[in-house]
Each structure stands twice: as structure tokens, then as C-alpha cells.
Amino acid sequence: MSPTSNQDRRAALRRAGLGEAPDKALDRITELVCSSLSVPVALISLVDGHRQFFACAQGLSEPWATRLETPLSHSFCKHVVSDAAPVVVNDSRVDQRLGGNLAISELDVIAYLGVPLLAPEGHVLGTLCAVDSRPRVWRDEDTQTMTTLAGVFTDHIVLRNRTVELEQTAEALARLQVFSDRSPAAQIIVDVDGRVLSVNSTACERLGYTAEELATLHLGDIQPDATSEMVRHLLEEARSQNVEPFESQHRAKDGRTFPVEISVAATSSGEIHYLAITASDITERKRRVADLAARESRLRFALDAGAMGAWDWDVRGGRVLISDRQAQLLGLPAGCVELDPAQALEFVHAGDRSRVRADVQLAIESGRDFEVECRIVRADGEERWMLSRGQMMRDAVNKPTRLLGVMLDITQRRATYEELRLRDERIRSLLDATAEGIYGLDMEGRCTFANESCARLLGYDSADQLLGHNMHTLIHHHRPDGNVYPMEECRIFATFQKNEGVHVDDEVFFRRDGTAFPVEYWSHPVTRDGELVGSVVTFLDISERLDAQHRIVESEVFLRSSINSLGTHLAILDSDARIIRTNRAWDEFGARNGANADRIGEQANYLEVCAAAGDDEVATSVRRALEELLAGDRQEFAIEYPCHSPEEQRWFLLRLTRFETPSGTYAVSAHDDITARKLTEHRLERRTEILSRLNEVNRSLAAELDLEQLVDRVTQVTTRLCGAEFGAFFYNVERRGDPSYMLYAIAGADRAEFEQFPMPRATDIFGPTFRGEGVIRLDDVTADPRYGRNAPFAGMPAKHLPVRSYLAVPVITRSGEVLGGLFFGHSDAGVFSETSESLVVGVAGQAAVAIDNARLYRDVERREEEYRGTFENAAVGIVHVDLDGSVLRVNDRLGEITGRDPGTLPGTPLVDLIEADDGELVATLLREVAGGSVHKSNDELRYRHAGGEAVWAMQTASLVRDDEGGSSYVVLIVQDISDRKQAEEHQNLLVRELSHRVKNLLATVASISSQTLRQATDLDEFADSFQGRLSALANVHTLLVQTEWKGASLQLIVDRNFAPYAEDHEDSLRTRGVDVFLNPRAALAISLVLHELTTNAIKYGALSDRAGAIDLAWELTDQANEQSLVIQWRERGGPPVTPPSTTGFGSTLIQKGIEFELDGDVRFEYRPEGIACRLQVPAASFMGE
Questions:
Q1: Nearest-angstrom CA–CA distance, 164 and 1007
Q2: Are 629 and 622 contacting, i.e. CB atoms less than 8 angstroms apart?
Q3: Is 1045 helix (H, G, I), strand (E, B) or coil?
Q4: C-alpha dihedral sign at 987, 991, 992, 998
Q5: What is the distance between the alpha carbons of residues 108 and 546, in angstroms, rounded to a whole number?
């Protein structure tokens, strides 16, 4: 017996029918346990996953008796289940297997005996257990008793399972009997001798016997051909499953017989065999077969008469049976009656094959009838059109069995149909192509045909929507005045009544949306074999025609009114030059000038009017032009002519225009009064001449940037324009707070004549001009009350230029600043007119602009010079960069930074001047600055010097915008920061080196401190030793700092080491050696070694006695092509020396310093006269960095 998995156990519990509900049938087992073993509690416990539940419980206390389950933490039984063996516990409190089990404290389980409960198939389901609340010793007999009772449990499960199986079998048999009784076939079971044992209700009903009566009969009583031998033979065949269904006859109780189809099967019960017979009544099937044969005969006759082939596709059998006629249609020889389905499909034309295959599949799947027209290619290669129809046959469960069909050759019909279709398409195309709507009517007025134009005109989507409708009711139901139009009065239907055509153009049809439109229609009768069968109606939408007619009438009225409203004198001439129509202006002009109406009115001949003028040049030109125009040699003619009288001057423009109409050639004569225009032209000509001169002046002023020449030109020109004798321009100045004015330019007089007088001031006459208050124009300045009122003169000064006419115009800039004034004079009175004033004012305005421009030009020149000086002499590089990243211009300093000629850099991409690693930074910066996302930036980057080295620079970028605010170019200020970068790198290097050395120093100090403390016997000794070693480190550090940690001279290290003892031992310290420069690491190590040797000599060696001495020598040696530094330390004259029994810290420090730090060698000799120490350091350890 082996343990059972949880999954197998749960499955076994389900098969045993043991659920969570207690099983009362098992109570007897637990009662026997309690009585046999004299225990208070007996349980049947079933373990399921995380718990145990009790199928039966005897003597269990609450609350467990109600719950009937416990967690596995309270379970002893789980051990029985897991081990698949009995578990015996005499006292659970001392049993190591059950330590911590809660059943001991909560269920008071002290003594326990459990044995496995097995399922019939051997799986462990649970435990039968006996429980006592007191310790006890279980006997083997107790275990045997429990095992026996557990076997009773298994037997109980087996018995219950078999009972359940028997009940299920009985239910199945009852269900089978019900199904058998409901079967449409008779079912009979006989023994090997043919005696009837059992029948279903169908057999009773069909044979007319009761079941009891049939049970007394032999099979041969109801099936005459069935003998005992036949039954035994069928039984043997049925047992080997070799019996096919066969037909036979059954005889009913009343003597009638009927055909049946027999199926047999063998069955047995132990060694006894039976024959089960199923008999289906096939009377109806026989009748249908006979009917089918008759129908097939008639069908064959019909097929032969209709030249149709027949085919039968056995879907399940995978074959197609064809008739002789079908074979003939396919071009196959007579007698070919069977085809493979794929072979049959190959006769279908390749272009139609996929469509036919899809239609056949659809018929199989849907059960619908099959019909298809397709091309086949006969066996002889001829291509024919065939019509094939088929019907799907299905079995009792709706599965497809056969597809029966016929095939008809429709090649000739297809050709006829195609010819008719093409003819119909041509006719329909012609009808649809016409703009007229056309529809046909039958005798009841219903639409039998309509073209697409008809549907379109009536607002329908297609002509099919009109078919079958009464057209009068649909489109012709009201008259144009809105009254109902009875069908019997409709003129279209007069066609039917009179059998003659009708033409109507004053009625309306109605569209689909209910709107009416005027039509013109024709209705013609249609006859067939002399009999009237309907009519054809053709109609047009004449809305546009009627609208055009209305517009023509309106246009005529409008044109007549428009012509009469014109001021132009108009006359229309026919091809003979007779005046056939005039307008009101023509008539009124003739009447106003006293002309005879017969002479220039309607019907007068225009050529004769021109001829009557004699040799007048204008009349002659007009007559000749009119003749050419009417002859078609020209299209139009125009001439201006004067028509003056003593009272006034007048001018006219005559225009002759030819036009043609279907009725003939005509000409229009139009006379326009152009007097006002001619007078204006004369004034404009004079004005144009002046403006031309002004324009010339303005161009010259705009181009002049020299201020002195500009002002002089303005003065000269304006003096001539206004007709002054002399003119001057005075410029505003401030002198000691008193505004006065200096002469800037003069015209018409000698400058000396002006300079002998004081400059003018803001007097009553001059003040308004210099303040910009407006123009002063005086016909006689001497008569003006403001004249001669200012001291020191009264009236006109002596020798003053004679001025009567006076004109003064201020010159004011756009900003409102008064630059000065233009002053003009003439010795005659009344010389300056309003025109003169306007001309001077215009020039003064242009002069102010020009003077402003000249001043701005001077300012720009000055600023440009200042900018150029700043740009070229700046201490930083300056670069102007286009928005596409190319250099526009650079200054000399940028050329120095990059090592390039500044003149060669414009046009160079800026990134070509930048180190590759910084190129993307610069490209991104330019895009951001040019795009406006960054207004200004400061970046450190590297420019590339022409020599190849990188130049560190601080670059400031900013955007320069144009006058419209758009981006123009980028300005870069480039400052060379290479020195700063080098200083920073050096500083960083020093900081890193200092950090490294401080760390090393601290590590050294910590090591020295630790080792010194370990060797010292008291604090004083530690302080002395530690202080000495730190002093040695400090001395060598001082030397290294002096050389910026590049190293130290060995001689200086030796001198610093012996310096504290030189005074007391001046003659005892002897040193000699070559000049050797040690790197920092070697300097530190050797300095500490010398300190240790010296300290030891002071305490215990040669320097502890004044008679002692030390010899220190060093040299560079070459051994095996490798240079080394050898240092010899020898003591003498001190206390006797013996080899030490232990190695002290000093010796250790010396060995580590030389051997480990410098990869050297240390050798001590303890001679009686003193210690000798030899140090050897390879060159790689003391030279270089």
C-alpha cells in the first residue's frame, strides 16, 4: 500500500459518493469501534486538501460534533493518510511526531489509534480512528480489529457502488425501451431457434398482435421466409458483422403482407446469443420508386423531345451520370454514361469555370435550385452556350445526396438575344442621347417606356421609376392657370380619339417635387397590325426659351430708356447710311442748334449731310470713313472736332461703329461733348509742364546728399519757379539764448549784399516763418502793418534789396522740426500768385525730406565709421553669420584666433571653423537663435586653429533683426579663453594631485601612528617616535612643495635629515654622493628610511656616544644594463652591536619603504663596531613621475 496523491484521493472520494454530508450507514462501524476498544470517541475521517471532515463521528464533543470537520492543524489522521499505514499513539503529549498539534489541547486527544480506509481501487481515502482522552497502551489485537472494521468500510463502498450501477443500468434500459417504442421501425429479438423474445410497440401496431401474442410465435409466423436455419445463419453473419440490409415480406395477423427492409445485429447475455431484427416498412418507398421510374420515363421522353441532356451528380459517391443526349451535347461518344465531377467541370469554359463552381457550391450549401448559363468546350473543341438547371436532393438529416439537372444548348438563342440586345442598346442610346423627353403610353395612359432625358426633366433618378404610372395623373394633372386638368380633356389623349398627332406649346408638366414647368410636346399614335395600341410623347422644357423672349422684350424697353438717358447724341444708320433711329439727346441738340429735322432726323441720309458741308476736312473724313465702314472695310472710326461759336468754345468726339445682325449691316454714330475734357486737358498740359519740372527737381533733391549743394539747389530752383528776383534760405541757429538765423543759400543777388546786414531775427515779419506757423504771401510787404516795426530800423533799411512782393515758406521736417525758411522778393508788387505759393510749398516739403536724408546720411557715415573702428579694433573676435550658417564677415581678431586670413572667411560654413565635437552644438544654437526660441546665448566651445590645434573660446550669440522685425543675421562675439582653460586644467590637475597626495599622506601617517603605538611602551615614547617620523615627512613635503611636487634632491633630503644633529655631531656625520633627483614617491620613502636609521643611531647606535660616527654614501650603478641607486649607511664607534632577537617597527618601515614602495632591496649587517645598511633602488622607481 503506497500513499495516494491529493488529486487521486479527491477523485476517489467523488467515485465513492463520499461528500461533506455525514453517512448514517457508516454509524455502525464507529459504534463497533467504541464498544470493541472501550474508547469514548471513534471517527471516520476523510482528508481533503487543507482540512479533514468526518463522514461519521461517535462521541465527538462540541463544537466539533456540529462542524464535523477540523483544520489539518488539529489532525492526527493526516499522518495515517500520508504514510498509508496505521498510526499508534499511546500518549500524544510525549510523541515527537505530534508536537504542536492543536487536537491535543482543543479536542483532548491523548491516545490515538488510526488505520487507513481504502477505496476499492486501493487509494487511501481517509482514516478509521479510535480516540481516548487518557493515555493507554494499544495492543496488536486492537490494531487488527481496526483493520478488519476498515475492510468493512471498503466492502460497504463496493456494495454501494454496485447498487448505484444497477440503478443506472435499469434507468438506461427503461430509456432504451422508450426509444425503441418510438422508433418508426419494428424491432424484434429472437433466440437462436427463431422464437420471439421481445418486440417494440411499432412491431405490435404494424403486425396487429399484442406483445404477449408475439412472444408465443416463431419468426417464421410473421416472416414466411425465416426458418430456424436462416436465423442461425443470420446470427453467425451478424456476429461477424457481414450482413447487409435485405428486403423481405412480413405477414400481419389479418393475413396481409407488406414489404420490409431487414437489418440484423447480434447481441448476447453470457453464453446465450440473440438476434436483434429491425424491420422498416418500405411500402411507401416501393411506391415512390415505381412512381419515380414512371416519371423518369416521361422525363426522358420530354428531354429527348426538347433536345435536352440530363445529368445526375451523386454527391456522396463522387460520380456524375449523364444521358445519351447529354453525352451528345458534350461531344462525347454514345454510351458514355459516367463522368468524374472534376472531369465534368473541365468541359466548362475556363472563363466561366470559377463562377459555375461557386454556383454549384452554393446550391449544395443552401439547398436552393441551381441554374447557370455558361460556355462549354465540347470534346471536339467547339464552343457552345448551355443553360443548366439542377435541384439538390437531401436525406432525412438534410445532408446533400444528389444534384439532378438538365442541360439545354442555347447557342442560337444567345446569338439572337445578343443581336436584339445590341439593337435595343443602340435604340436606347439614341433615345437617351436626345435632349427631348420621350415616353410611351398604352391605351390606359400608363407609361410603357421612358428615356433618361424624360426622367431627368421630370426630376426622377431613373426612367424605371416612371414605368406603369398613369402619366396624366403623374405629370399633367393641372393647367398653367392652376385649375385641374381633366384627363378626358387632355390634348395628348386626343391622339387616341382621333388617331392623329398633336402639337402643343402652351401647357405645363409637373416635376417629381411638385414644381411646374412650361413644355412644348408632340403626341403621335402607335399602331400594331392596323390597330391603335398607344402613343409616343416627345416634350421639351421651354422655360429658358420663354425667359429669353421675356428678356428680349425687357431688353428692348431697357435699351430704349438707357439710350434716351444718355448725354451722348446717338443715331443708328442702315446699310444705305439712312438714319433709322435717334435718341433724345440727338433730337434736342438738333433743335437747340436750329437744324432742320428733315436734314439730321430719322430717314435723313448721313452721307448727304457730310457732303453738304463742302470741303470741310472733318466732314470729308467722316464721309469717307462711313463709306468704308458700311462696305465692311473697317469696324470703327473716331475723330475729335471743334464746334465753336462767338459765345463759347466747344469740342465733340464723333465715333462710328459697325455691327451686323441677321437682318443686315448697321452703323452707330455717337457724338460726345468733350468741351470740359478739352479745357481740362489744356490746363493739365500747363500743369504737367510745371509738374515735370517739379519732378525733375524732386529727383535731383532726392539724389543729393551734400547738404550745402542741396540747399543751394533748392534756393535756385524755387526762385525761378515762383518768378522772384531774389531768394534766400535762412537756417535756424541759437546764439546765447537769442534765436537768430544765418544765411545758408542765396539766389538772384550777390551774397555780399546780404552779408552787410545783420542776420534776421524772429520779428513780426520773419517770426511766423521761423516758427513754422505757415506761409506768408504779401503783394506789398511795405503796406503790411508788421513791416518796419522792429528796432533798430524803421521801414526799409538803407541799401536794402528793394522788396515789394514778399513770399516766405517754412521748411519743416517730418518730425515737426523747423529747419529754416525760404524767402523770396520782387521789386514789383503782386508778383506771387497762389500757384507760385503751391509750387514753393511743394518744393519746400521735398527739400525738408532731402535735408533730413542728407543729415541722416552724415549721421550714418559717422556711425558707420565708428562701427567700423569698433569692429576692426575690438579685442574680441566678431562674426556675422547668415541664417543658413555661412560666414558673412569677420574682424581681424577672429582671424588671429583661428589662424586664418579674415578676407578668405566670408562664405565659409561656420561649422568648418569649429571642432567636430562642438559642430552640432553650434548648428543647434544657430537654429534656435535664428528661430527666435533663444534670444541670446553664452557658450564655451572650441574653434579649430588653421594649425590644427583647438582654441577654447567663450561665444556670445544674438540675433539682428531687419526693419520689419524679421530675422536678418546672427552676431557672434568670440573671446579667446585658452589661457583661462589652461589655468583651469592646471588647477584641476593640482587639485587632483593634491587630493591624491593628501590621501596617501594620511594613509602613511595612519600607518606610522598605528605601528608606532604598537611598538611604544608608554605615551612619552610614542610621542617622541611619532613626532620624529612626522617631522621627517614634513621636511620632505616642504622640499616637494618647493618643486611643485616634481621631486627633490637626495643631497637636500640628507641635509634636512641630519640638520637637527649637525651642531652636536658636526664631525661625526660624513656624507658623499652624486647629484640624484628623486621623484616624490622615492623622496618620501628614502626620507623616512634615513629618519629611522638616524633615530636608531641617536638612541642606540653611533650617535648615542660622542665618539661615534656615521658614513652615508650613494652612487648610481649599472648592472645588466639596468641603472640603480645604491645607498650605503655605516656606523662606527658606538656601543657594541648584537643582532636583534625580534624585528622592530623601524626595520619593518625601512623594508616596506624600499622593497614594497620602490621595488628595491634592503640588507642589514650587525657588525660589532656598528650597524651597516645597504639600500638599492632601481632607476624606474626613483626617476620620472
A1: 93
A2: no
A3: coil
A4: positive
A5: 121
Number of Cβ atoms within 10 Å of the Cβ of 1025: 22
Closest-CA residue to 844 (of 816, 814, 812): 812
C-beta of residue 384 within 8 angstroms of C-beta of residue 411: yes
Q: 347: which residues sit within 8 A by CB, 6+ positions away?
A: 330, 376, 377, 378, 379
DSSP letters, 911-955, are GGGB-HHHHHHHHHHHHHHHHTS-SEEEEEEEEE-TTS-EEEEEE
Cα–Cα distances in Å, from 72 out to 12, 63, 77, 79, 103?
20, 16, 9, 10, 9
Nearest of 178, 192, 153, 163 to residue 25 by alpha carbon: 153
Query: Do the strands 1122-1132 and 1077-1078 form a parallel or antiparallel pair, or are they unpaired?
Result: unpaired
Backbone angle region of 1044, left / alpha / beta, with phi > 0 → left and psi within -120 to 50 → alpha: left
> Taking the CB of residue 511, how many other CB atoms lie within 10 A of it?
14
E strand or H helix at 266, and its extent? strand 257-269
pLDDT computed for residue 797 by the predictor: 58
CA proximity to 1076, closest of 1055, 1042, 1037, 1050: 1050
- Burial letters for 373-387: b for 16+ Cβ neighbours within 10 Å, e otherwise? ebbbbeeeeeebbbb
Distances (CA, A) of 67 to 9, 18, 51, 71, 877: 22, 16, 12, 11, 98
Angle between helix axes 1019-1042 and 1050-1058 (nearest 10 degrees) is: 150
CA–CA separation, 689 and 687 (whole Å): 5
Contact between residue 1134 and residue 1099 where contact means Cβ atoms under 8 Å apart: no
CB 296 within 8 A of CB 287: no
Looking up cell 504771401, which residue turns up? 777
Amino acid at site 1017: T
Helix (H) or strand (E) holding 314: strand 308-314
Start-to-end CA distance of the chain, whole Å, equals 84
**Residue pLDDT, tens place only, 298-321:** 556 555 545 688 888 888 888 988
Confidence at 754, pLDDT banded by 50, 70, 90: low
Residues 716, 697: contact at Cβ < 8 Å? no
Span 127-156, pLDDT tens digits:
999 999 999 999 999 899 888 888 888 888
In 874-903, alpha helices (H)? 892-898
Cβ contacts of residue 529 below 8 Å, gap of 6+?
A: none
Q: Could you give the CA distance from residue 774 to residue 302 in angstroms, rounded to a whole number?
A: 125
Residues making up the chain, counted from first to last: 1185
Cis peptide before 63 (omega within 30 of 0): yes
At position 590, the amino acid (one-letter code) is G
Query: b/e string for 268-284 if b means 16 or more Cβ within 10 A?
Result: eeeeebbbbbbbbbbee
CA distance 968 to 1169: 94
Helix (H, G, I), strand (E, B) or coil at 469: coil
* pLDDT tens, residue by residue, 687-709: 666 666 666 666 666 666 676 77
Non-local (6+) Cβ contacts of 692 within 8 A are none
Say if CB 202 and CB 186 are below 8 A apart.
yes
**736 — pLDDT class (breaks 50, 70, 90):** very low
Integer Cα distance of 133 and 59 in angstroms: 11
Show the cell assigned to 238. Answer: 451478424
Which residue, chain included where needed, has cell 632591496?
Answer: 1161
Answer whether 110's CB lies under 8 Å from 31's CB. Answer: no
Which of these, 1058, 1042, 879, lies nearest to 971 by C-alpha position?
879
DSSP 429: H
Report the distance separating Cα 161 and Cα 167, nearest Å.
Answer: 10
Mean pLDDT of the chain: 81
**Residue type for 1091, please?**
H
Cell numbers for 287, please give them. Answer: 411506391
CA 715 to chain centre: 72
Q: All 3 cell numbers of residue 1092?
A: 629611522
- Coil, strand or helix at 897: helix
